[in-house]
Design goal:
Length: 244
């Protein structure tokens, strides 16, 4: 059977399915650090707002904190995560097989659905509101909605970033249904064309959700790119962003 279903996997020892998480991490540690005595291992499942996991060596104890989203993960997936975390801790290369197995599990439809619900319930999302010092994001959204989407796109939560970001000009957060735009655009002298293009780009993320296929995650699909080309003065807008 396949990794994605969490069933029997060729090449996986049956004893793996009867190990505790601590035993899995101790075994992986012995394999990756054969000359180092195995420290005490403590594994804890935590109510994180995402599927992140953390590891650190503290006072001779290997402390692992794993998202409770993974509490029921099959043993081979837990083993793959152990290789990934311990590998990162000691800067050891992680095999493609373990990375593939873990990513395939996270990309399962049911896991994506659970992760999205957890982010909605537990995650905190700062949304400043649409009105800025110079521009009103609601006005920009509605203008683009009428021009490119026949006025049919529902308005998500709109807000400006906390600070002036030069790297993250805008992003759409599907878990909180929010578009956040960098405050770099909310100032006198900033061409409105640049702001409109970034808003249009993020609106396309509402229209064309992320595509998942196995371990592949495509944010900008072919349909997305074709729609983006319809933005007037696209080249000019991108040149302005380069100068910003």
């Amino acid at each position: 059977m396949s990794d994605s279903e969490g069933m029997f996997l060729p090449g996986v020892q049956s004893s793996l399915f009867f190990e505790t998480p601590e035993e899995i991490y101790a075994r992986v540690f012995r394999e990756l650090k054969p000359r180092t005595p195995v420290p005490q291992v403590h594994v804890e499942f935590c109510r994180f707002a995402n599927a992140n996991s953390f590891i650190r060596l503290e006072n001779g104890c290997l402390r692992v904190r794993i998202s409770d989203l993974l509490a029921s993960a099959p043993a081979p997936v837990m083993e793959a995560l152990a290789y990934i975390l311990i590998g990162k801790l000691y800067r050891k290369p992680v095999s493609r097989m373990h990375n593939h197995r873990f990513r395939l599990y996270l990309n399962r439809r049911d896991m994506r659905r659970q992760a999205n619900l957890v982010r909605q319930v537990r995650g905190r999302k700062f949304v400043s509101g649409p009105k800025g010092a110079v521009y009103d994001l609601e006005e920009v959204f509605e203008r683009l909605n009428r021009e490119f989407f026949d006025g049919l796109m529902g308005m998500p939560r709109l807000g400006w970033s906390r600070g002036v970001s030069h790297s993250m000009l805008g992003h759409f957060d599907p878990s909180h249904n929010a578009i956040i735009i960098s405050r770099i655009f909310d100032r006198q002298g900033c061409p409105e064309l640049a702001l409109e293009y970034v808003m249009y780009h993020e609106m396309l993320h509402l229209q064309f959700p992320v595509d998942h296929n196995g371990v592949r995650r495509r944010v900008h699909t072919k349909e997305f790119r074709e729609a983006e080309k319809k933005f007037p003065r696209l080249k000019e807008a991108k040149e302005i962003l380069k100068r910003l």
